[in-house]
Each structure stands twice: as C-alpha cells, then as structure tokens.
Amino acid sequence: MSNQTTYTLTVPQDKARMRLDRFLAEALPDLSRSRLKSLIESGQVMRDGGTPVTGPAAKVKAGEVYDVNVPAAIPAEPQAQAIPLNVAFEDSDLIVIDKPPDLVVHPAPGHADGTLVNALLAHCAGSLSGIGGVTRPGIVHRLDKGTSGLMVAAKNDIAHRHLAKQLETRKLERRYQALVWGVPNPAKGEIEGAIGRNPANRKKMAVVKRGGKAALTRYRVHKAFGTLASLVECRLATGRTHQIRVHLADLGYPVLGDPLYGGGAGRRLKGVSDEFRQTLKELDHQALHAFSIGFFHPTGGKKISLESKLPKYFNDLLKVLEKN
Hints:
Blueprint: E1 4-10, H1 20-27, H2 33-41, E2 45-47, E3 51-52, E4 65-71, E5 87-90, E6 94-99, H3 116-123, E7 148-154, H4 157-168, E8 173-181, E9 188-192, E10 195-198, E11 201-207, E12 216-225, E13 229-236, H5 243-251, H6 265-268, H7 274-282, E14 288-296, E15 303-307, H8 312-323
Parallel strand pairs: 7-14
Antiparallel strand pairs: 1-4, 2-3, 2-4, 5-6, 6-7, 8-13, 8-14, 9-12, 10-11, 12-13, 14-15
Helix pairs in contact: 1-2, 7-8
C-alpha cells in the first residue's frame, strides 16, 4: 500500500499568475491552505515533472503541471509509552527535559512511536495540553534527533501560549555547545542568512537567497584544538530547522559527526590520532548540546535558568581532542 497520495494538476489559462498556494487550495479543497503551504515548503510540490517549488507565493503559469505528494497522515493521538526521561525541572505548568541524542521529539514518518511526545504522555499522565503527533501542542520548541540537551514543554494551554510568545519575541534564551571542524575566524561574531529547503535535496536545509526564513546565530569560540577543531558556544536569535548546523557548515566549520552537513570530514583527519579517529567513527550524530535554557515562568513570572552538564559522548570527544 502506498504511503502517499499524488495529485497531478494542470494550470488553466484563467489561473495564470495566481499564487501557488491559492491555486492548489482551490484545486484541492479537501486540504487546508496551511497544510498545502507545509507541503510546498517541505518539497512535496513538483513542477513539470520533477523540480520542487518551495515558495508558497510563487506565481503559476498557464500550462504548467504540478504534482502534489501528500504523505499518509500521522495518527493525531500518539500512545503513551513509559520511556525513561531525565527531568531538569517540572511543575504543574511545564516540564524541562534533558534530551539524549537518540530521542526523536515527535512522531513522524519512520518514527511513529518511541518519541519524546510518547514519553511525555506517559510521564505526565495525560496532563499535557492536547499534544499531537503533527501539530505538537505543548511542544514549544524542538531539538533535532541527534542534538542533546534542554528543551521545555507546556502542560496546559496557558503555559503553551506564554512560552510560545517568549520564543517568538526572543525572550526564551537557548545556548548550545558545539564541536566544529576548524577554528572560526573571527572568534566571535554573528552568522546571518535565510534558511530554506535545499533545492537539490529536500531532506536538507540550506542558506538560500530566495524563499527562506530570516535566521541569526551568535557564536564565540571557547577553545581551539590546534587548527583541527574547536569548542564553540552558539546562541539562537531565531529558531529555524537545523539552524546552527546549517549556519556553521555554511561558514565553513561544520559540526563534528553531523550526518547531513558534516561532509568532507575525511580530508580533515590527516595526522590525527587513532584514538580520535575511533571516537569519531563511533559517533553517529552531531556533537551539539543545548546546555542552557532561560525563560519566564508562564504563571508566576519568575525567571527560570537551567544548565545541563555535557553528556558522555561530548566529553569523550573533548578528551581525545585535548590529547591529539
């Protein structure tokens, strides 16, 4: 059984110059405009046999043919699963989790269960505010599967709205530690570049000139290990998908172990110790850890600041880099 439905649509003369999302919404009334926008931005809409169109505002032309791939729906109600969690803070309004790098945040194709959402449903005994596999109410922000560290989730609608507003207005502070190839120069600065889907590979994001969302990452080098690698602290001013990983790779300093954006690692390994080679080989995810989070409590207003110790995989890399 196919896991997606594909609609093929030809643009008639009287729809020429219409926005793509509006044209699709009129042609496919069973799909909401927001759903169609998401499909466009994720590379599921192809023009004339294969070119992804990732801008909802793109103008269509008469005679163009669009294929719209609609993946099978993910169940809206994930099942509660008793998955161990490292809880950094919890009260009746919210919970802060110190996430391990192998835990996916929410159900998605390929990860229907065994996620943080499933774990929270069990841990909070149904007190989270209507958490769902697609819309993720209660999940204020997320970390990539391979990224470890602190993230906050709301337990009720009021907390969710307040925390989401803090995220939008940049009052929810997030700091990360990253081990990167090379040593960024200058040692302190900002990386600014809109992020959107990579037109050549829709599974990846990229710094793009058109169709992306504004993104800003502030960084500073904590420690350099010769010219091989460095420990870098990053602060998010925005929260785009894969933002730190994409920005650092675009600058020329990809995160160690990054399976998507860490290309070219082989050429950097000349002259390194066997111990470092082996430690890096055993790493199957990016060396990126969300070590600090700060926000104002949604009901009490008190500032909450939490820090997480670096996990074992990160310290193992630091130790071999110190000796290399």
